[in-house]
Design brief:
Layout lengths: L3 E2 L14 E7 L6 H14 L4 E7 L6 H7 L3 E4 L5 H11 L4 E4 L11 H9 L4 E5 L11 H18 L11 E4 L3 H4 L8 H11 L4 E5 L13 H14 L2 H24 L3 E2 L2 E2 L2 H30 L6 H9 L2 H28 L8 H27 L10
Parallel strand pairs: 2-3, 2-5, 3-4, 6-8
Antiparallel strand pairs: 1-4, 5-7, 6-7, 9-10
Helix pairs in contact: 5-8, 9-10, 10-13, 12-13
Length: 393
C-alpha cells in the first residue's frame, strides 16, 4: 500500500519507544480534527502513556490534514477513499505495541483510551467498544439503532462472536495480531472483517461499554450501502451459510419432488405431472452446484487463507481426488445407462415419440450432476494443492 507520511517519526530509544498509537481516519473533518488530536495527546500525557497520534488524511479537500499536522499529529496521506483504506494505511504507519482506533468526529470520548489499553495489557487482543447502552440524544439515527443490532446479531449467529456492537468505531488491538488478521477490506466493512478474522483466529475479544455523542460535521455513513457491504462480507466469509445450506435444502427438496413423481403420489389431492419432475430436476442441479461452490469456498478459506476447521481438514485427509472422480463417473454412467434404455425403447417403437419422459429427465439430471461432481473434484484438488504434505484432494 502506497502511503505518504507528512511528518517523519523521530528515532526511538528504549526509554521513549512508542507504546500506544492512536489512529484517526480523517475525511473533511475541519471542524473537529484539531480538537481530536489535542484530546488524544492530552490523554496520553495525563496517563503517562508513551504514544503517538496518527491522522490518516483520506483525501480531504478542506485542509484537515494540514490542520492535524499543525496540531502535532503524524499525518499519513491515503488518497484512496474508504474507511478500510484509511485504517490499513494507519496500521502500516503505527509504531505502538497497542493501536487505538477512534473516529475524528468527536462521537467518542478520548478519555476512554486508557481503559482500552488496560484491557490489552490484561491479555485481550481485540477490545471493542459497545455504544448501544449509552447512545446520547441525536447521536444515532433510528435506522442505525435498528440496523446495527440486526447486523451484529447476524454476525454473531454466523461466527459465534461475543460482540454486541460489531460496528463500533472505537476499538483497540495489539500490533502483533495484525499479520494474523490479514485485513483487506477497504470500506466500512473493515469493522466486520476485523471481528470475523479475530473470531476465526481464536483471539481474545473483549467489549467495553462506552458512550456515543452527536457528531461534529457531516456524516459520511450511507446506511443502506454500508449495511449491504457488511452483509456481503459476512456471507463471503461464511460459505456454509451462503452455499452449503441452500444447496442441501434445494437438493433435498428436488430429490423429494422427483421421488414423489416416480411414486405417483398425489399432493393435496392433485397428481404430480412432468412439470413437477422438471422442477425437481432443476432443484437437484442447482443444489449440487451450490454444494460445489460451498466446498470450494470452504477449501479456499482453510487451505489458502489459513482458517481453522478441524472437521473439514479431517474429511479432506480421508477423501482424495480419485474418490470424487469415481463418484462423478458413477453418477454419469447411471445417467447414460438410463438414457441408453430410453433410446433403445425409442428405436423399438419405430422412432416415435418418447414414452418415458420421466426416465429421460432422470437420466439427464444424473448426467448433469455427475459432470458437476467430476469437475468440482478437480477444482477442489487445485485449491488444495498448497496443503502441507498433500497435493491432491
Amino acid at each position: 500500500m502506497a502511503i505518504s507520511v507528512l511528518s517523519e517519526p523521530r528515532s526511538e530509544t528504549a526509554q521513549d519507544a512508542v507504546a500506544v498509537s492512536v489512529v484517526i481516519p480523517c475525511l473533511n473533518e475541519l471542524e473537529s480534527i484539531a480538537e481530536c488530536v489535542a484530546s488524544a495527546q492530552r490523554v496520553l500525557e495525563e496517563h503517562d502513556l508513551h504514544g503517538e497520534v496518527i491522522v490518516v488524511d483520506n483525501g480531504s479537500d478542506d485542509g484537515s490534514g494540514a490542520l492535524a499536522l499543525l496540531a502535532g499529529a503524524r499525518v499519513v496521506e491515503e488518497p484512496r477513499r474508504g474507511y478500510g483504506s484509511a485504517y490499513l494505511a494507519g496500521f502500516a504507519a503505527a509504531r505502538g505495541d497497542y493501536i487505538v482506533m477512534i473516529d475524528a468526529d468527536l462521537t467518542y470520548d478520548f478519555d476512554e483510551i486508557p481503559r482500552f489499553v488496560r484491557e490489552l495489557e490484561g491479555g485481550a487482543e481485540l477490545v471493542m467498544g459497545n455504544r448501544m447502552e449509552a447512545v446520547q440524544p441525536g447521536a444515532m439515527s433510528r435506522l442505525s439503532r435498528i440496523g446495527n443490532p440486526l447486523l451484529s446479531g447476524f454476525l454473531n449467529l454466523l461466527f459465534r462472536t461475543p460482540v454486541r456492537d460489531a460496528h463500533c468505531g472505537m476499538r483497540a488491538l495489539r500490533q502483533d495480531i495484525l499479520p494474523a488478521l490479514a485485513l483487506q477490506a477497504t470500506g466500512m466493512e473493515l469493522a466486520s472483517e476485523m471481528v470475523i478474522r479475530a473470531a476465526k483466529g481464536g483471539l481474545e475479544i473483549r467489549e467495553l461499554p462506552i458512550a456515543l455523542h452527536p457528531r461534529e460535521g457531516e456524516s459520511k455513513l450511507s446506511p443502506f450501502r454500508d449495511g449491504w457491504r457488511h452483509m456481503r462480507l459476512m456471507l463471503v466469509y461464511h460459505p456454509n451459510f451462503l452455499f452449503l445450506l441452500p444447496g442441501v435444502l434445494f437438493g433435498a427438496l428436488g430429490v423429494l419432488l422427483m421421488a414423489l413423481v416416480f411414486a405417483r403420489v398425489s399432493l393435496f389431492g392433485h397428481s404430480l405431472f412432468i412439470h413437477t419432475l422438471i422442477g425437481g430436476s432443476l432443484l437437484v442441479v442447482v443444489g449440487t452446484q451450490l454444494l460445489g461452490f460451498g466446498l470450494c469456498g470452504r477449501s479456499y478459506a482453510v487451505y489458502q487463507l489459513g482458517d481453522r476447521d478441524p472437521t473439514f481438514e479431517r474429511i479432506g485427509r480421508r477423501i482424495r481426488l480419485e474418490h470424487g472422480l469415481l463418484l462423478g463417473l458413477a453418477v454419469m454412467a447411471a445417467g447414460f445407462g438410463l438414457g441408453a434404455v430410453v433410446v433403445g425403447h425409442w428405436f423399438a417403437s419405430g422412432l416415435g415419440s418418447l414414452a418415458e419422459e420421466r426416465v429421460t429427465i432422470l437420466a439427464a439430471t444424473l448426467v448433469i450432476v455427475g459432470v458437476q461432481v467430476f469437475f468440482t473434484s478437480f477444482l477442489l484438488s487445485l485449491i488444495g494443492l498448497r496443503r502441507r504434505g498433500r497435493d491432491d484432494f
